[in-house]
Fold this protein.
Amino acid sequence: MSVVASVLRASRTGVTAFNQQCRGFKSSMALNNKVCVVGAAGGIGQPLSLLLKNSPLVTELRLFDLAPVTPGVAADLSHICTPAKVSGYVGAEEMVAALQDCDVVVVPAGVPRKPGMTRDDLFNINAGIVQGVANAVAKACPKAMLCIISNPVNSTVPIMAETLKKAGCYDPKRLFGVTTLDVTRANTFIAEHQGTDVNKLNVTVVGGHAGTTILPLLSGEGAFSDEDRDALTKRIMFGGDEVVQAKAGGGSATLSMAYAGAEFAVKLMRAMGGEKGIKECTYVESSLTEAPFFSSPVTLGPNGVEEIHNFEMNDHEKKLFGEMIGDLKGQIAKGVKFVKDQ
């Protein structure tokens, strides 16, 4: 087989796998989802929009960004032979129109991390962006499912919540911080380490979505030496830094984040359509810990969060949990304060 033929075959295999996941719902379920990607022209937004265009669960895909290229991105995607109708919206004055009556809103909007930049460094810029999106959501689609990717997620999700509270339309069951990338990395790194099938792994990752607040529960994934456990845990926690450094100033984790964002949105839409038993780790308002927002396994349903599940930790994981929970609470408080000070 030629190299070109091999590449084409691999590409078709990948698309088929994603389609099978997208189509993992009962044919009798009514699925008619209007989806808006806010930040659709960016490094995450474009591949995320491509994956959502490929999903049969999406009937209308709206792309919004401040970048003038956005209508061109929409035109490009509209040539793909899948049923979803694509439209592009550009400029702050078109945000409400883009969001009008949407069922699902995925928000990767914001500036990406650069070398040497922490998620806290992103706060002052991205906090204002997310607050603006929340105000537009309150006007245009207050009942939509909101999937927040914009960093720092530990703070931007509380910003979205507090802004919607001010507008009188906050529903904690419909607001999600997308932490799927942490699970994706954990599955990938452990499969590589153990030489096992990555498709058979679904590692529980709890906490937040930044550095040490990311807590993979490896005790549920077999036996590891202390050295391997610590190395894997650190790599999962700081996988984003690995990408930023590898891109040498050229960007952050965009393609893997787009994949993870699309995977979560697709599973959420499947649950919205009535499919039972869909459980994902996601960052939501939670009473499991002393932190008001926390990522843990959540059963999804037609109205969003159906059940928040507890989790077990061994002594080592309890130690890590104790070390990080204060930081997580502080990052949440920072987001809450940002809105209250406005």
User: Anything to note?
Assistant: The chain has a mean pLDDT of 91.
